[in-house]
């Protein structure tokens, strides 16, 4: 999938236009978008139901997310440092 971006200044506002050329048909793209939206909604609903049952197991789970994001940032930093 190729994404072409162009910036235009329109009445003082920056307008970002995206043109996507893809190997997928319009029907396949619509299906993928609808599937992703339905999947995320279902995951949120199931998480909320599960959270009521096992609240003590979800304590401090944000630390796992922060650790994962920190790990990704460290990898990106190493990549850019070694690239120079």
Describe, in plain words, how this protein is organized in 3D.
With 84 residues, the protein is α+β, with helices and mostly antiparallel strands. The chain has one domain. Helix content is 60%, strand content 21%. It has two helices and two strands. It has a two-stranded antiparallel ribbon with strand order 1-2. The radius of gyration is 20 Å and the shape is flat. The two termini are 28 Å apart.
How do the strands and helices of this protein lay out in sequence?
Blueprint: E1 2-10, E2 13-21, H1 26-53, H2 62-83
Antiparallel strand pairs: 1-2
- Rough outline: flat
Biggest β-sheet description: 2 strands, antiparallel
Strand order in space, largest sheet: 1-2
Can you tell me the residue ranges where pLDDT is under 50 for at least 5 consecutive residues?
1-7, 14-18
Kindly estimate the percentage of residues that lie in beta strands according to DSSP: 15-25%
Distance between the termini: 28 Å
The whole-number mean of residue pLDDT values reads 80
Query: Quaternary arrangement of the chains shown?
Result: single chain
**Helicity, in percent?**
55-70%
Structural class by sheet pairing and helices: alpha+beta
Helix count, per DSSP?
2
What is the count of structural domains? 1
Number of strands: 2
Radius of gyration: 20 Å
Sequence of secondary-structure elements? EEHH
